[in-house]
């Protein structure tokens, strides 16, 4: 059954270190922030710094309808415009009336689990979420985070450390690894569902697979195989003790890419499935537990 992501706001996450990025966007305008449909270059003051982000509000944006929010995070080195081009989330948002936010990492990256930088990006993403809920009237029970590579790593970190903010995360070519994850207690304190896409030709494939096994073991998840609909692609789904769900797609012929993307340096148009479509359906089916 296909879920409809009506009113979902998309949060954009930056990919992991080591990819080719795109030039930083022009400085945002100094105009007053007004919640209206369209594309907005905005800033948010966090820890005394002006952090920049792009916000896409669909043509049907109506603050009274409390739209869902998706935050999308870019790869390293990269920028908001890079993941906006790659993921194709705006078209989905326009159809289902969802907000999508694309934050810029400091110095082209986010302080994820294995790199990049030392900024308080967990605090920034938390503050950004609160701002978009308060000012743009996003539904706090339908806030989702996605990212590729460094942005995917950052999604896992935020899922663990931003307790109660994100209902689910969508991780593409990113993983749960690094020094922070060695502690058994380093898991979400409230349910956060996960959908992830791993390329078998990615040099980090084994790290990503091990990370998902560790995540599921710690949360007492029980994965079982499910049809992927694509020859050669494996898919497992696990229900976890805290009420969350984990969905893992492994694409043996894909590298460090976004499956189904048709533009951008990390596009994998011939992957046989669309990570954007699948995570969109997953997000729609997984609002915050108890909401």
How would you describe the overall organization of this protein?
- This protein is 23% helix and 25% strand.
- The chain is an alpha/beta fold and 291 residues long.
- A hairpin with a 2-residue loop joins strand 2 (38-46) and strand 3.
- The chain is globular.
- The two termini are 21 Å apart.
Mean pLDDT figure: 90
Low-confidence regions: 6-31
**SSE sequence, one letter per element:** EEEEHHEHEHEEHEEEEEH
| Amino-to-carboxy terminus distance | 21 Å
What is the CA-based Rg, rounded?
17 Å
Number of extended strands: 13
Q: Approximately what portion of the residues adopt beta-strand conformation?
A: 25-35%
Question: Helix- and strand-based class?
Answer: alpha/beta
Q: Share of helix among residues? A: 10-25%
Number of helices: 6
> Biggest sheet, in brief?
11 strands, mixed
Large-scale geometry: globular
Descriptive tags:
291 residues; alpha/beta; 11-stranded mixed β-sheet; two-stranded parallel ribbon; 13 strands; 25% strand; globular
Structure summary:
Helix content is 23%, strand content 25%. With 291 residues, the protein is of the alpha/beta class.
Which helices and strands, and how do they pair?
Blueprint: E1 9-14, E2 38-46, E3 49-57, E4 69-74, H1 80-87, H2 89-96, E5 99-103, H3 121-135, E6 143-148, H4 150-161, E7 168-172, E8 193-199, H5 205-218, E9 222-225, E10 234-239, E11 245-251, E12 258-259, E13 267-268, H6 275-284
Parallel strand pairs: 1-4, 1-5, 1-6, 4-6, 6-7, 7-8, 8-11, 12-13
Antiparallel strand pairs: 2-3, 3-5, 9-10, 10-11
């Amino acid at each position: 059954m296909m879920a409809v992501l009506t009113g979902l706001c998309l949060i954009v996450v930056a990919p992991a270190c080591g990819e080719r990025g795109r030039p930083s966007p022009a400085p945002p305008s100094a105009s007053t922030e007004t919640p209206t449909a369209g594309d907005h270059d905005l800033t948010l003051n966090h820890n005394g710094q002006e952090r920049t982000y792009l916000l896409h509000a669909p043509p049907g944006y109506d603050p009274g309808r409390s739209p869902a929010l998706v935050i999308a995070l870019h790869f390293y080195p990269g920028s908001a415009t890079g993941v906006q081009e790659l993921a194709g989330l705006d078209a989905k948002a326009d159809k289902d009336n969802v907000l999508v936010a694309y934050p810029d990492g400091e110095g082209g990256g986010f302080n994820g689990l294995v790199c990049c930088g030392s900024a308080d990006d967990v605090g920034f993403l938390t503050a950004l979420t609160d701002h978009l809920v308060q000012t743009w009237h996003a539904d706090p029970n339908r806030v989702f985070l996605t990212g590729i590579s460094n942005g995917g790593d950052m999604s896992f970190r935020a899922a663990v450390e931003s307790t109660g903010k994100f209902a689910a995360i969508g991780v593409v070519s990113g993983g749960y690894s690094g020094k922070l994850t060695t502690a058994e207690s380093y898991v979400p304190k409230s349910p956060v569902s996960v959908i992830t896409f791993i390329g078998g030709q990615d040099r980090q494939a084994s790290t990503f697979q091990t990370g998902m096994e560790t995540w599921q073991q710690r949360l007492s998840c029980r994965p079982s195989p499910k049809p992927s609909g694509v020859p050669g692609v494996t898919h497992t789904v696990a229900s976890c003790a805290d009420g969350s769900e984990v969905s893992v797609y492994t694409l043996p012929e894909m590298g460090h890419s976004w499956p189904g993307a048709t533009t951008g340096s990390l596009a994998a148009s011939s992957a046989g499935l669309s990570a954007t479509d699948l995570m969109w359906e997953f997000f729609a089916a997984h609002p915050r537990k108890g909401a």
